[in-house]
Amino acid sequence: MLKVAIPNKGSLSEGATKLIQSAGYKCRRSSKELFCSDTTNNVEFYFLRPTDIPAYVDAGIFHFGITGRDIVLDSGHGTHNVKEVMGLNFGKARMMYITPGNYNFQGISDFEGKKIACSYPGLIGDHLKANGVNAEIIELDGAVEISLHLGIADFAADVVETGTTIKLAGLKTVGEPILHSEAIIVSKKDAPEIEEAKLFIKRIEGIILARQYVMVEYDIPTDKIEEACKICPGLESPTVSPLREANWHAVKVMVKSSQVNSIMDELSALGAKAVIVTEIRTCRM
Question: CB under 8 Å to 238, separation ≥6 — which residues?
Answer without folding.
Answer: 229, 232, 251, 252, 253
